[in-house]
Design brief:
heterodimer, A: Dimethylsulfoxide Reductase, domain 2, Barwin-like endoglucanases, globular, B: alpha+beta, Alpha-Beta Plaits, two-stranded antiparallel ribbon, 8 helices, 25% strand
């Protein structure tokens, strides 16, 4: 299947051919604009504040918001009442955006390193000097080592501007989002290959009769629109099945909790698929009409019995049967959640999500209420305002970092390969990094390797809001305006209730912080890249909005957001052409077959913990995003440090009590930098420990987060690369606990079946 | 008399803390104090299986507020006006008092001595003495009375991502809070030892309510041993504090 990266990423561009692109019909804007509320700054609380519509970025779900301003200061952030997804609501983090903008630890001025890399010792310099130095080093490095010796790591809404600069410099390493390689690459690829569009969690939970979550922990993961849809589904009487080694917040609301042995999810799914086929529980008409490769699927999964799965997954046969029967009885209105963070085990991640996609298709739960649904396509204008082209004379590197991964080109260069090339000079040298809006040390597996690579670079610059540990390694650091101080690209929501909105400054940037558009344009000027044609961000946004008969002014007259009509569901009587090679849902993946990858998913065992160890898994707390909110005064106060979940029976055998403090040590001998409190609970499997992600910052410049709590990331040193696209695994590390200086074995209460080999620790 | 009340539906609540942060933002509540907060409970065994639920907490605006009882401030006569009927009621009120029109337990900041007796008396730990002020004052959730006066709902209700907080007048038989308490069995957090008529109620699965009561229902009659200091003691302490700062 041939798609370019943009087609792959922008699901709108690859929506099914049956769906017409959306344009605003004449007259839709005739609805009266909301009455401007009276501004009266002397009223108590946030009452009477000036209201500015914008878009949140405390996480990347991007809820539409209203910034409330009194006397030039933001006093409150609420949801934009015009938003169909969140309305006037925001989550804990959304409410705490005020403490990001007014964090005294913010990066205030451009700075130049004066200490060692990683020390975070800088001297203030001017914007001119900072930008000149970055441009000088980019040109020098490109000249000496070739264009691909430059690499960018990015994340977030502003990333696209910087990406254009690196693209214009001719490097192949300009789109290397850790968001894909460390997070959602596997699920994106699996659904694109099966359905021809990136599902991006478009799962219609609010209209479902049964929901199925594999590790998805909504609520603890507070993506607001999804949380609302999930809880609405429950309120409407939907049943819930949660497959998770931990008794998560949704497990508590579930009808069936399946505490699965980590690494065996695909075994359960394959047995379910086989069971559904063997017992005629699938939607024959739908499969016949819309799916390709049913016979190959039937043949491929016939060996996976429920009895076998129960043993492999360490679950009760009765429970797994009850769960699949419950799903089958309610088809097609079953919400089989696609999952998001899917970089779990490296091998097998894509196939696990292929299984979820296939089970969804067998139930016909595609573009029907309660199933997965189609994104609504919206044809934004193609502004050529921000569009760099790689120079024509640039030669592709002889050996690309993507060479070993047939599907990497959809995402960019695998982050692990960039780090490897930087450390070893092979297959070619990488000598300069730009890091924008992502704390790579606290994101990419094995931070020790990341730091080693950072040490070896000729030059590294960082564009950030806060002095994260990754920023402390930069030679030049640029202070970026945060989401409440800047414009970004037009934001189109393609979901169940689509809308167009835009991020815009609620207040002016503090200190010398500058917007990403301004920074990238200044870089382009210095590098003589002809790619920022608009004079201003407003002009750029107007160009993008033009084709749907909108402008920034019109949008603001409408309260900052215009709702569109969604068409998420299919007409059961009409044929659908899916954007796959065959035009059908590919139960058998032709693209995988072409690349000698399994076209039908198979069970590949994931190595079990060595004796005396438990598997380390991680997740989210609702008050934090990644490692980026730990320095937020309010959120830090709400959750300053994580607790390590340990099974009660195991803890009793180890002599560990609730609240005891322990050190964690992994299979490679890496220890947690400080002590962590233990949460002793029956709500986790005995072979697994759980630690919320993102704590234990090593940046001394983050005065609230520094050394607070324990970092999961610094214990993730062993990782497996995904053979499809080069993503890095995060659940392939094993730990013991150290209490009062004594290393304690974790007793094995659930024996491992012979089919699952153990990880062996190499004796030195 | 009306009585404002809140029902928190643990079927819906996901424990996200949005309520706590909206409250902090609306009233600029200084860290580390809380007017509204959330505690994680479990996962723990109950008689109905494993439970992992949440305790979203705040002032209960009790029918028999023990915080009012212990307030040492001299009562003075105040006039309260019912915005609906226009009727007025006169009542002798201390620095902390229960509003006879709407049932809110409130603090008159100008009259609060900052002695902390009410903070010690509350069996729910819902009050704090704001030590960030030069003259510390007691503070707590007001059900956003100022917002109510402007026709807005409390900040925590407005922000709740899953609409788990239902607010209204429990004396109004047509209200949703009345229905949830009297028909759906929402329970306030009381015990054999402590029942002072709280007006925050909780709905949820049996196991979650069981865990909530086991972990969070108050048992200590905290107010019985509170000795309010004399006004003189309070003034001396306040002056000393200002001197120390200088």
């Amino acid at each position: 299947m041939k798609l370019n990266r943009r087609q792959f990423l922008e699901s709108a561009g690859i929506a099914t051919a049956a769906l017409a692109a959306w344009k605003i019909p004449k007259g839709v804007l005739a609805s009266p604009a909301p009455a401007a509320s009276k501004v009266a700054t002397d009223l108590p609380g946030s009452l009477g504040a000036k209201e500015v519509p914008s878009v949140c970025e405390m996480c990347f779900w991007r809820c539409p918001i209203i910034g409330k301003v009194k006397n030039g200061r933001i006093v409150k952030i609420e949801g934009n009442p015009k938003s169909p997804t969140n309305g006037h609501r925001v989550c804990a983090r959304g409410n705490s955006g005020i403490q990001l903008i007014y964090d005294p630890d913010r990066l205030k001025y451009p700075m130049k390193r004066v200490g060692a890399r990683g020390e975070g010792k800088w001297a203030r310099i001017s914007w001119k000097e900072a930008l000149d130095e970055i441009a000088y080093n980019m040109e020098k490095t490109r000249k000496k080592y070739g264009p691909s010796s430059l690499a960018l790591f990015d994340h977030g809404a502003s990333a696209e501007f910087y990406r254009q600069i690196f693209k214009g410099m001719g490097t192949e390493n300009y789109t290397n989002e850790p968001a894909f390689f460390q997070c959602m690459g596997a699920v994106s690829l699996a659904y694109v290959m099966t359905y021809g569009y990136k599902i991006a969690e478009r799962v219609d939970m609010s209209h479902s009769k049964v929901m199925l979550f594999f590790g998805t922990h909504l609520g603890e993961n507070a993506h607001l629109a999804q949380v609302r849809e999930y809880v609405t589904g429950l309120q409407n009487g939907a049943k819930l099945i949660v497959v998770d080694p931990r008794f998560s917040a949704p497990a508590n609301k579930a009808d069936i909790w399946l505490p699965i042995r980590p690494g065996t999810d695909t075994a359960l799914l394959l047995a379910w698929i086989n069971y559904v086929i063997q017992n005629d529980l699938y939607d024959k008409e739908f499969v016949q009409m819309h799916c390709k490769g049913f016979n190959e699927l039937k043949e491929g999964v016939k060996g996976y019995s429920m009895e076998w799965a129960a043993r492999i997954c360490d679950l009760k046969l009765h429970d797994i049967k009850k769960a699949i029967d419950m799903l089958a009885a309610s088809r097609p209105h079953v919400a089989i959640h696609s999952g998001r963070h899917s970089a779990w085990y490296g091998r097998g991640d894509v196939q696990r999500h292929r299984c979820l996609a296939i089970l969804t298709a067998l139930f016909g739960a595609v573009a029907v209420p309660g199933g997965i649904y189609f994104p609504t396509s919206v044809d934004l204008g193609e502004s050529d305002c921000v569009e760099c082209e790689a120079p024509e004379d640039v030669e592709e590197p002889e050996t690309s970092l993507k060479d070993n991964y047939p599907f990497a080109s959809y995402f960019g260069s695998p982050t692990a390969e960039i780090i490897r090339a930087t450390r070893t000079g092979k297959p070619y040298p990488i000598k300069l990094w730009g890091i924008a809006g992502v704390n790579i040390i606290h994101t990419i597996s094995n931070p020790y390797e990341t730091m080693d690579a950072l040490r070896k670079l000729d030059f590294v610059f960082s564009i950030e809001i806060l002095p994260t540990e990754s920023a402390t390694w930069a030679d030049i650091v640029l202070p970026e305006a945060n989401y409440l101080e800047r414009y970004d690209k037009v934001y189109v929501n393609h979901d169940l209730t689509p809308y167009v909105t835009v991020r815009q400054p609620v207040v002016k940037p503090l200190f010398e912080a500058k917007s990403p558009f301004w920074i990238a344009r200044e870089m382009a000027k210095r590098l003589k890249l002809d790619c920022f044609h608009c004079k201003s961000e407003e002009e750029y946004l107007d160009e993008e909005l033009e084709d749907i008969d909108l402008s920034l002014a019109k949008l603001n007259k409408e309260g900052g957001l215009v709702r569109l009509k969604g068409h998420p569901y299919r007409d059961p009587n009409k044929p659908i052409k899916f954007s796959t090679d065959s035009g059908k849902i590919e139960l058998f993946s032709g693209s995988f077959d072409d690349e000698d990858m399994d076209p039908i998913p198979k069970f590949e065992p994931i190595l079990a913990p060595p004796k005396g160890y438990a598997r380390l898994v991680y997740g989210r707390v609702p008050t934090h995003t990644f490692s980026r909110t730990m320095n937020n005064l309010w959120l830090h106060n709400e959750c300053p440090e994580p607790m390590l979940w340990l099974n009660k029976e195991v803890a009793e055998k180890m002599g560990i009590k609730y609240g005891d403090r322990v050190v964690i040590v992994n299979q490679d001998g890496y220890r947690s930098a400080n002590l962590v409190k233990v949460k002793v609970t029956p709500g986790i499997r005995p072979d697994t420990v759980y630690l919320p992600h993102g704590f234990g910052s090593r940046s001394p410049l983050l005065t609230k987060a520094y050394k607070q709590g324990v970092s999961d990331q610094f214990l993730i040193t062993r990782y497996i690369l995904d053979p499809f696209f080069g993503g890095s695994s995060h659940r392939t590390d094993f730990v013991k606990l150290i209490k009062d200086g004594k290393t304690l074995d974790i007793p094995e209460l659930r024996p491992v079946p012979p089919e699952i080999p153990r990880f062996e620790i190499k004796k030195v | 008399m009306s009585q404002y009340a809140m029902v928190i539906d643990l079927h819906r609540c996901v424990g996200c803390h949005a309520c706590a942060l909206a409250c902090r933002a609306e009233w600029n509540v200084p860290v580390p104090y809380h007017r509204s907060w959330v505690e994680d409970l479990g996962p723990e065994e109950t008689s109905e299986g494993l439970s992992y639920t949440f305790f979203p907490a705040m002032c209960n605006h009790c029918d028999h507020p023990v915080c009012v009882e212990v307030c040492p401030a001299e009562p003075i006569e105040k006039e309260f006006r019912d915005p609906k009927t226009g009727k007025t009621i006169k009542m002798a009120a201390k620095a902390t008092y229960k509003n006879p029109i709407n049932g809110l337990v409130l603090i008159d900041k100008d009259r609060c001595l900052g002695c902390g007796a009410c903070v010690d008396a509350c069996p729910y730990g819902a009050r704090y003495l704001d030590d960030t002020l030069d003259k510390p004052k007691a503070d707590k959730c007001t059900f956003c009375v100022e917002r109510l006066e402007h026709g807005e709902v409390p900040a925590c209700v407005k922000t709740c991502p899953v609409d788990a907080r239902i607010f209204g007048d429990i004396t109004d038989k047509d209200s949703e809070v009345y229905r949830l308490v009297h028909k759906e069995g929402a329970k306030s957090l009381t015990s054999k030892e402590v029942n002072i008529g709280p007006n925050v109620y909780y709905l949820g699965k049996k196991k979650d309510i069981e865990l909530l009561f086991k972990k969070c229902a108050p048992h200590k009659r905290t107010w019985e041993n509170v000795k309010a200091p004399s006004r003189r003691d309070v003034l001396v302490a306040a002056i000393k504090k200002i001197r120390d700062k200088v």
